[in-house]
Amino acid sequence: MALLAAALRAELGRYATLPWAGRVPAVSLFFGGGTPSLLPPDLIGSLIVAARRQLGLDADAEVTLEANPEGLDRGALAAFRQAGVTRFSLGVQALDDHLLRRLGREHSAREARAAFAAARIAGFDNIGIDLLYGAPGQSLADWAATVDEVIAWRPEHLSAYALTLEPGTPFGRRAPADLPDEEVQVAQFERLEEQAAAAGLERYEISNFARPGFRSRHNLLYWRREEYIGLGPGAHGALGRVRTANLRSQTRYAAAVRAGAWPIERWERLTDDQIDGERLVLGLRLADGVPRAWVETRLDGRRPRALADYLAADLLQVRGDRVALTSRGVLVSDAIFAELV
Fold it and tell me: Which is the CATH superfamily of the domain at 2-215?
């Protein structure tokens, strides 16, 4: 832990020496990936202070800490709050112990409920919950009951993602036989939208819902294609047209930083065409959509369909000078994005 902490401080300090560092105030600091809540609160606090002093982190910046429910208690959460964390993101995923075990999660439904309650007691007034649908053996009724209970907690933010079968994972190597079919998954998503809307949670991005004033500032940076620095093992960064990815191994990451090298494992310089496609696809994830001119320019003579085709198929809609996904378009957004890229 000490080596990782020293490497994180050193990498942050190295970015701070660059000519542009601190000139543009940063509006978000996100502690994510893995389980950053396992880090000591005083380390989190020291990194927040360093980001303010060296990288121009705003005094009222959104500072998010991701956490899994297991092992959280009021004392630790209060310490994180005191250290400067302003937003808490809790990876609940499900409220069915059997499903949680199948997903490889270490917490129980009881621990998830307790963690949320503890975060409230610790003073967090901006809490996000992550859920998973399309999971093995998960019926529409199971999903609706989970959403009902989580919404009753009154979180400020709710994210819900369909299970994906990632290569190299147990499910990726052998898909469960009882995955919900496409019809059930569509019904699960539609039920989520209905329940969230009834509770005052607005869908502002394909998979994200928030109460007024509680959209995730950090995630909006991604979808609006703004710049960000990635610090730590496996972190990704986006500066101008350059994309970077750090070494994933903590040992190799720390060794590279100690040696005075940038711990970047791979990087890519985007072409103009890639940038245009990226800003269009990321922007269309948002309910606000993108300027109509972006879509028309992208489709003009280079893509299999014109804007009128998407409108006729009820996949895209025009609102003033902007274009956004329809409810039907949201359900097949991956296919639309593949065509636009």
Answer: Aldolase class I (3.20.20.70)
- HEC profile of the chain: CHHHHHHHHHHHHHHHCCCCCCCCCEEEEEECCCCHHHCCHHHHHHHHHHHHHHHCEEEEEEEEEEECCCCCCHHHHHHHHHHCCCEEEEEEECCCHHHHHHCCCCCCHHHHHHHHHHHHHCCCCCEEEEEEECCCCCCHHHHHHHHHHHHHCCCCEEEEEECCCCCCCHHHHCCCCCCCCHHHHHHHHHHHHHHHHHCCCEEEECCEEECCCCCCHHHHHHHCCCCECCCCCCCEEEECCEEEEECCCHHHHHHHHHCCCCCEEEEEECCHHHHHHHHHHHHHCECCCEEHHHHHHHHCCCCCCCHHHHHHCCCEEEECCEEEECHHHHHCHHHHHHHHC
What CATH code would you report for 272-340? 1.10.10
pTM of the full predicted structure?
A: 0.92
Instruction: Sketch the domain layout of the chain as residue ranges.
Output: 2-215, 236-269, 272-340
- Does residue 172 register a pLDDT over 90? no
Confidence of residue 25 (pLDDT cuts 50, 70, 90): confident
Summarize pLDDT for 120-149 with one digit per residue, the tens.
999 999 999 999 999 999 999 999 999 999
pLDDT in tens, 320-341: 999 999 999 998 999 999 888 8
